[in-house]
Design a protein that fits this description.
By secondary structure, the chain is α/β, with parallel strands linked by helices. It has helices at about 20-30, 55-65, 95, 120-125, 160-180, 200-205, 210-220, 280-285, and strands at about 10-15, 40, 45, 50-55, 70, 80-85, 100-105, 115, 130-135, 145-155, 195, 225-230, 230-240, 250-255, 255-260, 265-270, 275-280. The protein contains eight helices and 17 strands. The strands form four sheets. It has a seven-stranded mixed β-sheet. Strands 12, 13, 14, 15, 16 and 17 form a six-stranded antiparallel β-sheet that branches. A two-stranded antiparallel ribbon has the order 3-4. Helix 1 packs parallel to helix 2 (about 55-65) and helix 1 runs parallel beside helix 5. The longest helix is centred in the middle third of the chain and has 22 residues, at about 160-180. The termini are far apart.
Length: about 300
């Protein structure tokens, strides 16, 4: 475990990489904390055919005029009261845990969904609640005691980006409020842990014999795909419907598609080699026949 944080915190180093880690950095800067260093992952190729691109956190730090590096060892030369970690993307070596008090914003109700994809796994599992934990950092994955915990209800139709956006907003507010009054003593995690492995391509492939709610959850996580007329076909948004329960799996009736139990209505899709579009526009262009099926 990292060393305990001091009662008063004024100097904060920040470690984060993706876009979801930008709001907490901005909030700490806005709240007046001195940020002597920001650490992010190295520039990477982000997007097909693109060159090396700085991470969103690196870009934000530069815009704020903050020192930023991808060299984690630079922490050895920094004097700070606390290190804040948000989706940094790398395990922090134990040597640094002896130098700073570390806290991490984790987007689940620990110990449920420790690991890399907690929001995705909460949606896929059909969880009705998830949350945000402000936790102490330990060498083991997401095992640290919890300073603050906020329960969040999951709307049955919100997608990954919508839910994650809400959690980031809550976690950012939670962090700033906790630092303002003092972190206090963390509470050890209790209960059986569950681990949130990254979502595989196989999990994103839709099986229309599955339950309608399960397919809807896979679509909400993002990247869901099937086949149509022998080509890859992405499903970006669906809605649940009580209509067309008579359809066979993959069979169409208008925008409704049959599943193993009930039907779903297509809302936004993307044919191979085409931009994503509203399902109504796609259907009008596709000229569906009675023989057409998804997944066939």
């Amino acid at each position: 475990m990292s060393i305990p944080p001091p009662a008063e915190i004024s100097r904060v180093v920040y470690l984060g990489t993706p876009a979801l880690a930008v709001p907490p950095l901005l909030a700490l800067h806005e709240a007046g904390y001195s940020i002597p260093l920001v650490v992010s992952r190295p520039d990477a190729r982000r997007g097909r055919g693109k060159g090396l691109t700085a991470s969103p956190v690196t870009v934000a730090a530069r815009e704020l005029g903050l020192p930023v590096t991808d060299d984690l060892s630079a922490l050895h030369d920094i004097d700070a009261d606390l290190a804040v970690v948000v989706a940094y993307g790398r395990i922090i070596p134990s040597a640094f845990l002896d130098q700073f008090a570390f806290v991490n914003i984790h987007f689940s109700l620990l110990p449920r969904w420790r690991g890399a994809a907690p929001v995705e796994r909460a949606i896929l599992a059909g969880d009705r609640h998830t949350g945000v934990c402000l936790m102490a950092l330990e060498q083991e994955l997401d095992t640290g005691a919890v300073y603050r915990r906020t329960d969040v209800e999951i709307d049955g139709d919100e997608d990954l980006e919508e839910l994650r956006g809400r959690l980031v907003e809550i976690g950012t507010r939670q962090l700033v409020e906790a630092l303002a009054v003092g972190l206090g003593e963390p509470v050890p995690q209790e209960g059986e842990p569950m681990y949130a492995k990254k979502i595989t391509s196989k999990e994103r492939e839709l099986d229309w014999t599955d339950d309608a709610d399960e397919i809807h959850r896979r679509v909400r996580v993002g990247g869901a795909f099937t086949s149509f007329r022998g080509k890859r076909f992405k499903i970006h948004r669906t809605s649940r419907t009580e209509l067309a329960a008579y359809l066979e799996p993959g069979e169409f009736d208008g925008l409704c598609v049959g599943t193993g139990t009930g039907a779903l209505q297509l809302a936004e899709v993307q044919a191979e080699g085409k931009p994503r579009q509203e399902a109504t526009a796609w259907r009008n262009g596709a000229q569906l026949t009675s023989d057409d099926r998804l997944g066939g």
